Amino acid sequence: MQEYIATKTPQKIVAVSSTIPQPTFSSSAKQQNYIVSVEEGALAGWYEHKVLPSITVAQSILESGWGGSTLSERAHNMFGIKADSSWHGATYAIATNEVINGRTVTVNAKFRAYSSITASFEDHGAFISGNSRYANIIGNKDYRSVANDLHSDGYATDPTYAGKLIQLIDEYHLTILDNIAFGGDTISGHAVASNIHYDAVKSNVAVNYGGQIVEGSRNDGLYKSGPYYTSSSTQATATVSARTLNGKYVRVLRRAQTARAWWVEIQLNSGETWWVDRRAVQQVSDTKMFDAVTNKQSVNYGAYIHEGGRYDGLYASGPYTTSTSTFLYATKHADSINNQAVTVIAEATTSKANWVQIRLASGATWWVDKRAIATYDQITNGHVLNANVFVDQNHRNDGLYATGPYHTSAQTIIPATKTAKQYNDQGATAIAEATTVLGTWVKVRFNDGATWWMDSRGVGFLDSIISQKSDSGFVKIVQDVRNDGLYATGPYMTSTATYTTAWKTARLYNGQGARLLGEAVTKRATWIHVRMNDGSTWWMDQRGAVSYPYDPILSLKSVSYTAQIVQDSRNDGLYQTGPYMTSESTYLTAAKTAKQYNGQQVQVIAEAVTKRATWVQIKLNNGTTWWMDKCGVLAFDTVTNEQPQSYQVTVQQHDRNDGLYQTAPYFTSVATKIPAVKTAKQYDEQTATVLKTADTIRTKWVYVQFVDGSRWWIDARGVV
C-alpha cells in the first residue's frame, strides 16, 4: 500500500510494502516448487506490462508441461511463443500440434529460444503488451475474461485453451498472485520497492481549443487522473495508448507542466477525458475540426422514427460535430421516440452523414441522422387478380394487413398483430397484387371470408405445365452439390400434392443411373420423369441429372487363352451382352458378379477396350459366357508349337533346380501357376526320353519320361 497525506505542495511519498509469507499453491512438492520458481517473473509481468500474474503462470504450466517439455528444457521457452519475422534472437525448431479446421495436426515450427527461464518470462510480458491484438487484456484484472480474450485473440489454436487456463488458475489458487500484485505487496524473499518520488505539477491552467491526435512514430500513454507519475494512480505505465485515438479530433481543456514534459487534458466526443503528452496533440482551427454543412435546404414531408437496432443521437443546434455545442455525443437519442410520426423540415449534408431536422408533435425540433427516419412506401403496379393460391407458412410468419401492404400508411408501419400462420396450408383466392420497394404483396380472400394483404412469398401459385413429352434414354443422378426433391405425381408446384417441399430427395440416388421416361416444362424449371434402379418413378429437376451416353467400344478382337478369375480383393460385375455401359442392357450395375467364380479357370475368347477399362469375354466351365474387367482375371501362358518327339537326353542340374510340372508347362493353367513342389535335381545326370516339345512366352519346354517311369514337363535348358 502507498500512504501519503494530501497537501497542496509536492510531497515525498514512501512506499510501504507489506511482505506476504510464501503462499501454498499445491500439496505436491513438484508443483509447489514450480510455481514458487516462476512467481516473481509473473509478478514482474504485471508491474512492467500489466499482464495478469495468474494467467502468466497458468500459461507457462500449460505450454511447458510444468517445465518438463522439450521446448522448455532445451530452449527455455515456457510459453510456446513462435519465432516470426519480428524475432531476431535464437530459435529452436520442433514438431508441434495445431488445431486446423477442427482437426489436430502435427506441424514443424520455429520457436523463440532464450538464455534462461527469466528471459522467457520477461519476453512474454513484452510480447503481449507490444502486440496490438492483445490490447484488450492489458490491465484486465478478470482472469476468466483474460483467458477467453487470449484464445479469441489467436494466442493458441486449441479450442479448449481458455478453459484449461481457468481450470489451472482455480485448481492452484493462482489468483493469490493477482491479489499480491494489485495490493503492491511482495512475497517473502522478493525485492521491495521504496522511496517513490512523484513528479511535481509546476503549472496547471485551463485552456479551450481544438486538437488532433498525431502519434506518428510515438506511443504516448493516456492517464485518467493527471499527468504521468504525479500520483500513485499514474505511476504505472499506461495501459491505454494514444495510438488508439490517432487522427481523432479532441477538445483540449487543460495544460500542465512536470519535470518530464508538458501535458494536456483532452476531451473525446464521448465526453471521456485523458491526460497525454502535449506533443501527441496538434492544435487545429475550428474550421478544420468541425464538419462543414453543405446542401442545407428547407423541406416539408411526413416520416416516422425507425431506429431498429440504431442508437442515433438528437442534436438541438445542428448536425453532430458541426459546432462546439454538437462536438460531444448526444445525451438524448432517437430510440426514445421510436415509431413516432414526425415532420421533416430541413435536410443537410456533412462529411459524416446526411441529416434531417425533425419536428415532433410536441413542437420540439432536433437534428438526427437521416437513416433514423423512414418514409411510407409507394404502391406501384397495383392490379386485380383472380388466382387460386395456397398459404405456405411452414418456415414463415407473415403479417396480415387490412388496409394495404405493409409500410404504405400510418396504419401499416407497425408489425402486424395477426399473422398468416393460422391459415397455413389452406387454400385462398388472390384478388389483387401490388408492388412496393419491400417486395410484392397480394390481397387474399381466405375461406372464412376475411381479406388481408400479405407478402406474396407467403403464398404459392400453382404452376402450369407449359409443355410435356415422353422420352427415353438414361441419365446419371448428380447431387454432389444439390439436394433436389423427388415428386411422385408430377413436377413441383403443379398440384396440391406437389406444392410442399419433397419428403424424399435425389441425393439418395446420387451417382446412380436411371431410365428417362418423360420431360415437362414449368415456369420454374425443366423436369424429368425417371425410373430408378429400385423400380420407383419420380419427377425431379433436370439440372440434378446428366445425360449418360453409352461408352463406345474403341477396339474389339477375338482371342483364345486360358485364365483364372481372381476376385480376392475385387467384386467385378458380369455382363452378358457386352462390356459395362456399352448398351442399354449393360447400363445398370451388374446383378451378378465374378466373386462366386473366384479361383476358377476359364477360357478367354474376346477382348474389348472402352474409355473405362479393358474387358474380356470369358467362357465358364458351365458353357456360359460373360464380359468382365480384364483386371479381374489372371491370364496364363499360351502353349504353342507342341510336337511329339522321341529322343534321349541327359538331365543337367549342376547349377539349376528346374521345377517339374505334371499336366503342362509352368503357368499355363491353374494347376501349374504356382512354383513346382518337385524339382529335377533328384534326376541329375540321369537319362530320360523326350516325348513332346512345346513353347510358351517364357521358354521352350520338354515332356520327358524318367527311368522310374514318371513323366514331367521341364525347362528344355535343364537337359542336354
The largest sheet is:
6 strands, antiparallel
The oligomeric state of the chains shown is single chain
Q: What overall geometry do the principal axes of the alpha carbons give?
A: flat
Number of strands: 36
Count of runs of 4 or more consecutive helical residues: 8
Percent helix, as a range, is 10-25%
Structural class: mainly beta
What's the gist of this structure?
The protein has 720 residues and is mainly β.
Provide structural commentary:
With 720 residues, this protein is mainly β. It folds into 7 domains: 18-187, Lysozyme, CATH 1.10.530; 203-288, SH3 type barrels (Roll), CATH 2.30.30; 294-374, SH3 type barrels (Roll); 384-461, SH3 type barrels; 467-547, SH3 type barrels (Roll), CATH 2.30.30.170; 555-635, SH3 type barrels (Roll), CATH 2.30.30.170; 640-718, SH3 type barrels (Roll), CATH 2.30.30.170. Helices cover 12% and strands 32% of the residues. The strands form 9 sheets. Strands 22, 23, 24, 25, 26 and 27 form a 6-stranded antiparallel β-sheet that branches. Strands 10-9-8-7-11 form a 5-stranded antiparallel β-sheet. A 5-stranded antiparallel β-sheet has the order 15-14-13-12-16, with no helix packed on it. Strand 9 (262-267) and strand 10 (273-277) form a beta hairpin. Helix 1 packs parallel to helix 7 (175-183). 28% of the residues are buried. Mean pLDDT is 89; it is low at 1-16 and 192-196.
